[in-house]
Known about the structure:
Order of helices and strands of chain B: EEEEEEEEEEE
Shape of chain B: globular
Largest interface: A-B, 27 and 21 residues
Helix content of chain B: under 10%
Distance between the termini of chain B: 37 Å
Radius of gyration of chain B: 13 Å
Radius of gyration of chain A: 14 Å
Number of strands of chain B: 11
Oligomer: heterodimer
Number of helices of chain B: 0
Structural class of chain A: mainly beta
Helix content of chain A: under 10%
Low-confidence stretches of chain B: none
Order of helices and strands of chain A: EEEEEEEEEEE
Number of strands of chain A: 11
Strand content of chain A: over 45%
Amino acid sequence: GENVEQHPSTLSVQEGDSAVIKCTYSDSASNYFPWYKQELGKGPQLIIDIRSNVGEKKDQRIAVTLNKTAKHFSLHITETQPEDSAVYFCAARGAGGSYIPTFGRGTSLIVHP
Amino acid sequence: KAGVTQTPRYLIKTRGQQVTLSCSPISGHRSVSWYQQTPGQGLQFLFEYFSETQRNKGNFPGRFSGRQFSNSRSEMNVSTLELGDSALYLCASSWTSGARDEQFFGPGTRLTVL
């Protein structure tokens, strides 16, 4: 089955710095890669996603890049703010009727004011 | 538009008991997926229901089961509870089944097994 590795497990940055979280996946059939933000006491919230036919996607301060050849994708957050502090999860899903999603173990991002 | 709701939010049970968790998806959504989240194993997919039929199933024992009603509301049942079943159980809904739709997560039910 699919295996998703996520690094780092903890990331501490100063407000205004950039943060980068990286994930690798094993199944070349995976074609949908969402990123979720989970705040304390809440469920994960989709913040950005990318499909395998796209190399990069940007939404304001957040961007995701995908390298299908190397099977890795990354989340980039620029101009970090204290409210960006949360746990971030990457995931990989395949297409078709069987699309069991596999999640990374999560990255705890701490943004210091 | 109301989000995904899960009841109860917190639950304490003892080993050997059974438990039923409930999930109400966003209005109009027909797919409901369940996940287990633990510090040790992270987020793991349990199963997905679409139009009252189980479409996908993760690698969990048969003690974990679910169902979906005609109004798309879903329930998850865990029988013969074990200490290791203590976790946050998350429900997520989407318009349709498959890989193309964004999933919206509920706040979860925190289950503690003593």
